[in-house]
Design brief:
Elements: E1 12-16, E2 18-19, E3 22-28, E4 37-38, E5 41-43, H1 50-62, E6 69-77, E7 90-97, E8 110-116, H2 128-138
Parallel strand pairs: 1-7
Antiparallel strand pairs: 1-5, 2-3, 3-4, 3-8, 6-7
Protein name: DNA mismatch repair protein MutT
Keywords: Hydrolase
Cofactor: Mg(2+)
């Protein structure tokens, strides 16, 4: 995964949750990417660190409580694709949530939640960046 410093500007965050080798994905209920599955996440709020934003977004979209997250990578969307259209690049910091507590339910702008193994993601509209991160992390399952 990339090692971009968190001091670099990021516009949004996402939180990766893994249970029994399955990843928590939410169906986006709003644009951009409405109807696509992605890791829970969203935009940072004023004065919020990327880590705080990841923990907050996970709670708001799924009801899961994480007290610690670790940085994985930063994805830059150039918005040249239909799955994530916007007028300017958007930098998304991706974090791994450690031992999130609770049962995931769709809330805020998430239309539904899904626990999917990498091999099951092909049956859904899953964003390219999510597939890349999930494939990378799934390799560690086999170790």
């Amino acid at each position: 995964m990339d090692q971009i410093p968190l001091s670099a500007t990021v516009d949004g965050v996402s939180a990766v949750c893994i249970r029994d080798q399955a990843f928590l994905l939410v169906e986006r209920g709003r644009e951009p990417s409405k109807g696509w599955l992605a890791f829970p996440g969203g935009r940072r709020e004023e004065g919020e660190t990327p880590q705080e934003a990841a923990i907050r977004e996970l709670l708001e979209e799924t009801g899961l409580v994480a007290t610690e997250v670790s940085y994985l990578t930063t994805v830059t969307f150039d918005y040249s694709t239909a799955e994530f259209p916007s007028p300017k690049p958007f930098r998304l910091a991706v974090f791994l949530a450690h031992d999130p507590m609770g049962e995931a339910v769709a809330a805020d702008d998430a239309a539904s939640v899904h626990w999917l193994r990498v091999e099951d993601m092909a049956a859904f509209d899953v964003t390219t960046s999510v597939l890349e991160v999930a494939h990378h992390l799934a390799r560690s399952f086999k170790s």
